[in-house]
């Protein structure tokens, strides 16, 4: 029950943020689309300068950097990763709120894909400090943000 209450509060906050940013009264679908586009920008910003190395995903790169320079030297990256995690959780909440109204099709499929991505990515993000302190590494294959979700959202409007 407490989780549902927190989710509804988060949903209300996301809708108010969207209304303040755009000046429009949003539908849940519009709020999801705005949050998904924000997510893409955050991911692209964190991946800037990574290059072509496949092992240099966002979390692997951050883990490598804090091992080399210490966590304090990369506090800005940590804030961005935390913002990305918060955005991911908010997007899952919005998608859950929209799920009962969602029709079968691409959006529903990409919603499930995003939920799987969010679950794996958040678990990996939450284990960074454990890996740092214990000297471990992430298993290969950090999930990629499913950008198809944004296209499915635009088709659903």
Global mean pLDDT: 80
Radius of gyration, whole Å: 17 Å
Beginning-to-end CA distance, first to last residue: 31 Å
Task: Please describe the biggest sheet, giving its number of strands, its sense, and whether it closes into a barrel.
Answer: none
Number of domains: 1
The number of helices is 7
Number of DSSP strand runs: 0
> Strand pairing plus helix content: what structural class?
mainly alpha
What is the ordering of alpha helices and beta strands? HHHHHHH
What overall geometry do the principal axes of the alpha carbons give? elongated
Strand coverage percent: under 5%
- Low-confidence region ranges: none
Task: Estimate the helix proportion, in percent.
Answer: over 70%
Characterise this structure:
- The chain has seven helices and no strands.
- It is mainly alpha-helical.
- The protein has one domain.
- Helix 1 (about 1-20) packs across helix 4 and helix 2 packs antiparallel against helix 7 (about 150-155).
Chain-wise SSE layout:
Layout: H1 2-22, H2 28-47, H3 58-69, H4 75-98, H5 106-126, H6 128-134, H7 148-156
Brief account:
This protein has helices at 2-22, 28-47, 58-69, 75-98, 106-126, 128-134, 148-156. It is built from seven helices and no strands.
Main attributes of the structure:
157 residues, 7 helices, elongated
């Amino acid at each position: 029950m407490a989780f549902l209450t927190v989710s509804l509060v988060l949903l209300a906050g996301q809708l108010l943020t969207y209304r303040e940013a755009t000046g429009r009264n949003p539908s849940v679908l519009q709020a999801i689309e705005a949050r998904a586009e924000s997510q893409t920008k955050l991911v692209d910003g964190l991946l800037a300068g990574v290059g072509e190395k496949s092992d240099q995903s966002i979390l692997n790169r951050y883990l490598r950097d804090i091992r080399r320079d210490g966590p304090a030297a990369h506090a800005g990256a940590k804030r961005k990763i935390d913002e990305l995690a918060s955005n991911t959780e908010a997007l899952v909440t919005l998608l859950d709120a929209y799920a009962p109204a969602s029709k079968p099709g691409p959006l529903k499929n990409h919603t499930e894909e995003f939920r799987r991505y969010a679950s794996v990515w958040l678990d990996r993000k939450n284990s960074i400090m454990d890996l740092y302190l214990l000297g471990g590494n992430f298993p290969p294959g950090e999930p990629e943000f499913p950008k198809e979700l944004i296209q499915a959202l635009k088709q659903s409007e």
